[in-house]
Amino acid sequence: MGNQKLYKGSLQTIILKLLETNDKMYGYEITQKVKELTKGELKITEGALYPALHKLEADGLLDVEVAKVGNRLRKYYKLTESGTKETANKLDEMQEFLRTMQQLVNPKLSLE
Amino acid sequence: MGNQKLYKGSLQTIILKLLETNDKMYGYEITQKVKELTKGELKITEGALYPALHKLEADGLLDVEVAKVGNRLRKYYKLTESGTKETANKLDEMQEFLRTMQQLVNPKLSLE
DNA sequence: TTCTTATACATTAGATTCTTATGTATTGTT
DNA sequence: AACAATACATAAGAATCTAATGTATAAGAA
């Protein structure tokens, strides 16, 4: 597993992107999906995830809907209208960041 | 200027990469070079840069050499042997991170 | 000549974001 | 019966940054 600290700052964007693609997801599902998509390279910890979800909700980017499955609860999160807009912004910023970093660390590959 | 917080965690790698390419550089020069290379997208602040340089030196990855230019001093930093190895590691980790993030936020572009 | 900007180092307070540890409870597997 | 997985959550502390401040020299503009 690579350098986890590089992912610092990108958690919100990852969550928003997943919700854009999958419509609605619950917390534990997000951790599993990220592990699967990144083949174990990135593991979202609960201590990072839940506060991040709560903040996105408090900022009005996510709506929550509590569901009961068997006897256990799940909190399904979904993008609000404002969350959809913010997702587009954050994805643009992420692409610019990725281009910039690629150019910095490997100028040869970015001649296109 | 994009989302500065995405760069959190990548400063060490950036410094090491610049020193790999340019052999030796001083602090202020690094800030200017990064601004130039990223067309203003990334601005390294002194409060981030100097502690980072001191840490890399304390960790034995950089050697420092003080030079006097006119009446002003410059501290030239240079990779040690161990610093050269660590640079290769960190660049590998960065490439893996960039691939992973690209795949997460834009799966379409990563079909290759 | 005086004022401002650039060069060049540095530290500190505070914010943000994470990791690690801990806690509670249900459900599935051995 | 015990353990792993599912599902939520918080809290202490670490790491890394931003913004502000400080010192000093050099260069350029007014």
Automatic annotation (TrEMBL), chains A, B:
Q: Which InterPro entries match?
A: Metal_resp_DNA-bind_regulator, Tscrpt_reg_PadR_N, WH-like_DNA-bd_sf, WH_DNA-bd_sf
**Which Pfam families is this protein grouped with?**
PadR
**Which stretches make up the Transcription regulator PadR N-terminal domain?**
15-88
Name the residues that span the membrane.
none
Q: Which Gene3D superfamilies match?
A: Winged helix-like DNA-binding domain superfamily/Winged helix DNA-binding domain
PANTHER family named in the record: PADR-FAMILY TRANSCRIPTIONAL REGULATOR, TRANSCRIPTIONAL REGULATOR RV3488
Record protein name field: PadR family transcriptional regulator
Q: Which species?
A: Polaribacter sejongensis
